[in-house]
Specification:
Elements lengths: L10 E4 L9 H15 L4 E6 L11 H12 L8 E2 L4 H13 L3 E4 L3 H4 L23 H8 L5 E4 L10 E6 L3 E6 H4 L3 E4 L7 H11 L4 E5 L6 H11 L5 E5 L2 E2 L15 H8 L2 H11 L11 H4 L5 H6 L4 E2 L6
Parallel strand pairs: 1-2, 2-3, 9-10, 11-12
Antiparallel strand pairs: 4-5, 5-8, 6-7
Helix pairs in contact: 3-7, 7-8
The structure holds glutamic acid.
The site of glutamic acid has 7 residues, from loops.
Cofactor: Zn(2+)
Keywords: Aminoacyl-tRNA synthetase, ATP-binding, Ligase, Metal-binding, Nucleotide-binding, Protein biosynthesis, Zinc
Organism: Enorma massiliensis
Length: about 325
């Protein structure tokens, strides 16, 4: 059935990286992704972003599933694991390579972070194009020394297809010229691991995801993802980037903030309703922080409320 926006039924996803115990920032992002989908009668899927080997050791994935269930943020179907899907990513890289859009890159981390390189808004250096035009003989000689990463060429800045625009549900109209803002970007690392930008695009398309809700730290990655969708012939999902929760000193909440991780929060709040009621109020969804279940919060959710609060939210621990 088509919605008023001319899109099919909303399909969203949680896409956590299991690199530590879920913390307050993850709870907040998961709750909003869930409420957005539930309030539109859509379907929410779960994908574990465990491409990096370090995320596969340790108890984090099973704790994550347990924490989501405890919160009442359920998903449909079996969780999808990125480490099972390398074939899909390999095929996508092969398609891009066959179209002449990729090249091997031998630059070291130190070369990439050379002091003079301008940096994109997400902190990665704008790629200067060092390996863009290597000859086959140069590629062969360098490959014998170290395995290359794979980069995707972006259009030169004058070309219209290299400027990507989209409308975010919270942050409004966004525009980025890839050649100036990131340059040719990695789709596979030199250790063979497929890059986040590629995997996320391939997976969202394969899973039928048409609505993405995530932290605004990924707002500047979205144009790269839209460019990849365009090259691979995928539909562009709707994007809603939400403000970040910040620690009292203005830092992003991190896994090391143990007093705000689920182990601590489950003990401190006792029930999911107490915790979610407080998080929903922080997010500006409810007028007070009364205990409420995820299901009860559906009636309070609206994108208009999120748009009103589009500053990052500073957590005052004293208020916990
Ligand atoms: N796995 C990413 C994270 O945990 C989210 C990726 C996405 O939503 O596109 O930050």
């Amino acid at each position: 059935m088509d919605t008023e926006h001319g899109q099919s039924k909303p399909i969203g996803r949680f896409a956590p990286t299991p690199s530590g115990r879920m913390h307050l920032g993850n709870i907040y992002a998961s709750l909003l992704a869930w409420l957005s989908i539930r309030s539109a009668n859509g379907t929410l899927l779960l994908r574990i972003e465990d491409l990096d080997e370090r995320t596969r050791s340790g108890p984090w994935t099973s704790l994550l599933l347990d924490d989501l269930r405890w919160l009442g943020l359920y998903w449909e179907g079996e969780p999808v694991f990125q480490h099972d899907r390398e074939e899909l990513y390999r095929n996508a890289v092969e398609r891009l390579t066959a179209a002449g859009l990729t090249y091997p890159c031998f630059c070291t981390r130190a070369e990439l972070h050379a002091a003079s390189a301008p940096h994109a808004s997400d902190g990665t250096p704008v790629y200067a194009g060092t390996c863009r035009n290597l000859t086959p003989a140069e590629v062969a000689a360098r490959s014998a020394v170290r395995p290359p990463a794979t980069r995707l060429r972006v259009p030169v800045c004058e070309s219209p297809e290299g400027t990507i625009s989209f409308t975010d549900r919270v942050f409004g109209r966004q525009r980025q010229t890839l050649a100036l803002d990131c340059g040719d970007f990695l789709i596979r690392r030199s250790d063979g691991v497929f890059a986040y930008q590629l995997a996320v695009v391939v997976d969202d398309a394969a899973m039928g995801v048409n609505e993405i809700v995530r932290g605004c730290d990924l707002l500047s990655s979205t144009p790269r993802q839209i460019y990849l969708q365009c090259l691979l012939g995928y539909d562009e999902p709707r994007y809603g980037h939400i403000p970040l929760l910040l620690a009292p000193d203005g830092r992003r909440l991190a896994k090391r903030d143990h007093d705000l991780d689920m182990e601590e929060l489950r003990q401190r709040f006792g029930t999911a309703e107490h915790l979610l009621g407080w998080v929903a109020h922080l997010a500006g969804i409810t007028p007070d922080d009364k205990p409420r279940s995820a299901e009860e919060l559906v009636a309070f959710f609206s994108w208009d409320k999120l748009r009103e609060h589009h500053e990052n939210i500073v957590i005052r621990r004293a208020s916990l």
